[in-house]
Amino acid sequence: MRVDVHAHIMSRDFHEAMAKLPGMIKRPNLWGFELARDGKHIASCNEAWFDRDHPIREMDRKGFDMRLVSLAPPNLYIFPPEQQPEVARWVNDETIAYCKGRIDRLRALPSLPLGDPAAALIELDRIAGAPEVAGVAIGSNVSGVPLSDERFEPVWAKINALKMPVVEHPLHPTFAGDIQDRNLSVVLGFWFDTQLCVTRLILNGVFERYPDFPFIVAHTGGGVISAIDRLDWATPRWAKNLKQPASFYAKRLYYDTCAVYAPTLMEAHNAIGAGHLMFGTDYPYIDIDFAHVSDLPLAGAEKAAINGDTAAKVFKLA
Amino acid sequence: MKIDTHAHYMAKTFYEAIEAMPGVSRKADPYGLQLVRDGKTVVPLNEKWLDPDDQLREMDRKGFDMRLVSLTTPNLYIFPEKDQGEIAKRVNDETIKYCEQRIDRLRALPSLPLGDVAASLKELDRVATAKGVAGISIGSSVAGVPLSDPRFEPVWKRIDELRIPVVEHPMHPKFNADMQDMNLSILVGFMFDTQLMVVRMILNGIFERYPNFPFLVAHTGAGLLDIKHRLRGAHNRNPESSKNMKKPFDDYLKGLYFDTCMNDHEVLMDAFHFMGPDRLMWGTDYPFVDNDTKQVEGMEISTAQKQAIIGDNAQRLFRL
User: Fold this and answer.
1) A203 touches chain B (CB under 8 A)
2) Cβ contact, residue pair A175, B175, below 8 Å
3) Is the pLDDT of residue A5 over 80?
4) What residues make up the domain containing A255?
5) Between chains, do B273 and A178 touch, taking CB under 8 Å as contact?
6) Model ipTM?
7) Domain B3-12+51-317 has CATH 3.20.20.140
8) DSSP code string of B11-70
9) Which of A174, A226, A270 is opposite residue B223, by nearest beta carbon?
10) Is the CB of A226 less than 8 angstroms away from the CB of B262?
11) What's the domain count of chain A?
């Protein structure tokens, strides 16, 4: 089974709701159009991506069996906390309905209104039993608040109890304003934020306290895997309460292949194993095909694991 | 020959100048002490590091032949701009004198008072020809200003004329107030700042306009190679970036040198394959991480290639 674990659903209603937020402007950019606010890039989109048959056509053309779809940045967290529960309900319902008619090809990764942790627990319960739902999507920070912040402890406890897969996606970092030149907030800032997010979740013991849910990190970790030795060096100094070195937790996570670059993927393979890598396209942005995995110097069974077998097991897709 | 290209000399004049600044205080830290200001780390401090012989005893004990020493973060850029020129002279003179007394073992990488560009040009000319000087040390950003900022153009021009090697060291990123927990400003912030610096230098055409000086990047590129596919794509899509570059993004990367201080086998092998055997140089990050040569010895490459990384490349590049 060939499964794409990193892909986005582009909702026209969601984009229109974002565009109506105070101060938001819409203007053309290299992708099609962008939303921006306070001189900061918020999201890129293209009208063609709103066409609901577009992802399926692309999947057929490239030979993918299954795709997990989630909101693209900025996720729900761009809305004021008090609006997030309502937006979560209708946009998650839209995503689930979209997958419903195509459950053999698409599964949903709904988002949680984390600006309101109590509402996030309710939304989690509401969507968790739906057959179209494979897991939840989570951003690398929640309007600047790290995912390891204490306020999210009940959310992790609940996710852990449900053994619900969580798929991380980078968001603009708190310091995006300092790296607006040449689209660096997306190009590098997204990677930095994923690295910060995973480092904090590990060093703050979230994965130690809640070891029972699968966590999939975007873009092959955004640099976390390269920093494993540096994190182990740091554990006894700045994360003394961890029972294991940081690498122990990092190696239990899953990573998508969206770094794309073969040496980075081989480095990840050698450090954490083929069984912890999952194929992703980053549709409709990078939108890659299987070549970046097929070309790796790996055995057939390892490639099959990366291309979908592991995802089929972890997300219970079969 | 074992030549360490990433190590620090904790100049007394440097610490004195920091402690003389308003609002700086001492706080306990896993290294011993830390100087802090406004709740943010300025620099770690351990009394042992202030003993200039300690460094040589350690080198003897570990069998290291030669070491290049520079200031550590925050370099001179923490000082008021108008004072940087004077402090640079004091700190560089102390460091150069320290090295010249043991010139068979130590060479200096003096710092430039980049808060004051005119003073930097003077300091560059003043130190460039000193016997004990092997190159220049530079921070990944100057009090939050990117190294690719137009104000530094005369500095790159002069460095390029002198063909003096430049050794980069990470600084706390401009945005490090958001990552003070668990020492993250050093753990990940340093890596971010080095990555941002290299990408901005390439996209803004510094290496295109000034191609004649060697540039050594700390921490094996600080994870930059992981992100290569994304950088390539971003550059191809962005006409604003490509106008400064006559060659593909990767060609500029391959023109740099990387030290080995990421200390990760897979990262080193990746860097070796991409950069080639001549562009990696061993470093210890003394007295912080303080590595030996084990990681390099463990690479799946020939003995001659290991020797190149551990010493031959640096010997040639820094004319040691």
Assistant:
1) yes
2) yes
3) yes
4) 3-10+51-314
5) no
6) 0.91
7) yes
8) -HHHHHHHHTSTT-EEEEETTEEEEEETTEEEEEE-GGGG-HHHHHHHHHHHT--EEEEE
9) A226
10) yes
11) 1
